[in-house]
Amino acid sequence: MRALQLVAAGTPLRLREVALPPLAPNDVVVDVAAAGICRSDVHYRRGFPAVGPLPLALGHEVAGVVSATGEQVADLEPGQRVCIHYQVGCGECSYCRRGFEQFCAEGKMIGNGRDGGYAEQIVVPARNAIPVPASVSLDHAAVMMCSSATSLHALRKGRLAAGETVAVFGAGGLGMSAIQLAFLEGASRVLAVDVNVAKLRQAERFGAEAIPASDDAVAEILDKGGVDVALDLVGSADVMRDCLDVLAPMGRAVAVGLTADEMAVGPYTDLVSGESELIGTSDHLASEIHELLEYAATGGLLLDEILTETIPLEEAAVNAALDELERFGATLRTVIHPS
């Protein structure tokens, strides 16, 4: 089969012919119908955080159709439409049993520690393949596997309560889901901060108040009373600093984006004086995917305007899409159609 692989960090992805891994008794083969391109893939291609072993097919936002099942798989069958929970845990350790596969010592993320969905097919444990409701497109289901799921988990980690306010720093693919999900989870007000005017206009269409990213953004948000929850979806020490600075008393700043940068935190000035919290969030939970699919199936989570481009499984097209993300361009979410 064809797969787009990262062969060496810092180099473009390469389209290669590869063999499909053997099918274990509890595995399924999924013919990939849609694979979303995430900003994390930009980081992986660049080399931080390191992924592998290389060569490796990237892609952790994946949806498709089951084409084969292992002999012990009883709850899935060929022809079923599924999306893939990208954290593949051992299924037996205390973290897996509690639903926190991202902390499994033996776990591997697809498109990071094991081959992902930038390919015509993918093999995963059946427990990672989640049926997609008929009313939800596979393109949308793929995008939800990271951009929506990670946003929901970040809001949950931030303990967003009904009536509270939210600042979303970074109005890209994750940000557009975060805005909608914040309202669905009960937020009374959402502020969207970004450098891109087109993204801010889209954020406004989802009900957010647009705040152009500038040296005055923090002061503007504080003039509005600050916020209860602030999300850094960019992955920047400067942005994380802004998240802390815009908090109202007892506010929670949630780090989501990937960065190697470091920042200084004043225990008293940043945390103690306002009873503020700085919270890390890692990926999401399989249980949250079921909630997202329900939101999408009932029309609460709208992804048509987030999915801005579809492209083929070709070197030039996919590398160009990654380049556009690296430049913080106007594209929100691009989906690869391997077929």
- What overall form do the CA principal axes indicate? globular
User: Number of DSSP strands?
Assistant: 18
**Based on helices, strands and strand pairing, what is the structural class?**
alpha/beta
Count structural domains. 2
**Whole-Å distance between the termini?**
11 Å
Give the uncertain stretches in residue-range form: none
Helical fraction: 25-40%
Which CATH architecture of the largest domain is right? Alpha-Beta Complex
How much is the average pLDDT?
95
What does this structure look like?
By secondary structure, this protein is an alpha/beta fold. It folds into two domains: 2-146 and 284-337, Quinone Oxidoreductase, Chain A, domain 1 (Alpha-Beta Complex), CATH 3.90.180; 159-280, Rossmann fold (3-Layer(aba) Sandwich), CATH 3.40.50.720. Helix content is 29%, strand content 27%. It contains ten helices and 18 strands. Strands 3, 5, 6, 9, 10, 17 and 18 form a seven-stranded mixed β-sheet that branches. Strands 13-12-11-14-15-16 form a six-stranded parallel β-sheet, sandwiched between helices. Helix 10 links the parallel strand 17 and strand 18. The longest helix is centred in the middle third of the chain and has 20 residues, at 138-157.
